[in-house]
Amino acid sequence: MENELKLASGAMVALGVATAALVVMPYVEVRDVKPAPQLKPYTSAEQRGRNVYVANGCVYCHTQQPRDRNLGPDADRGWGRASVPADYAYDKPHLLGSMRTGPDLLNIGARQPSRDWHLGHLYQPRAYVPGSIMPSYPYLFQVKDAAEAKQEGDQPITLPPGYGPMVGQVVVPTPEALDLVKYLQSLDRTYPVLPPEPKS
């Protein structure tokens, strides 16, 4: 019985230390972090696009946390400065990601602001990035007769030669595709990082 008591006590102490180190201390450190003035809350369209990003598993292949120059070549790749807690002030839940099958996207809105590029890349990634292993998302688009699309006021996407549908047809983005692109365009954390305010 004495050994079980020691084991249980040791386990509780280990759990307490781990909780303090991994939960309490980080919370105390970042609980008062304010967003940078340049960072704005997501619009309703951007929030819907964020939901599409999650639903399509983009977070499984893309991170949103550029690393410090000392920890990796992210800045040399043009992915931006290392992220700070204030960059995620409006992200609930955070979509940091853990795998880099594709590039980091925290600053994709600054690196690639073109709506047409994003739409075309979602429809057929290899048309824009040769050798890309990113899957295409054709279900975020509709292939329509060009005359019908024009009559309905749709705005078809422009694709490179050889990647579009048959002659007389156009590719039209769905509302989900448009929202996803708005979310991607909102990912721009290129503003300067302010030093933390001194505690009074």
Automatic annotation (TrEMBL):
PROSITE patterns: CYTC. Residues 44-188 form the Cytochrome c domain. Pfam families: FixO (PF02433). It comes from the Bacteria. InterPro entries: Cyt_c-like_dom, Cyt_c-like_dom_sf, Cyt_c_oxidase_monohaem-su/FixO. The chain crosses the membrane at residues 7-28. The keyword Cell membrane does not apply. Keywords: Heme, Iron, Membrane, Metal-binding, Transmembrane, Transmembrane helix. This is Cytochrome-c oxidase. GO terms for molecular function: electron transfer activity; heme binding; metal ion binding.
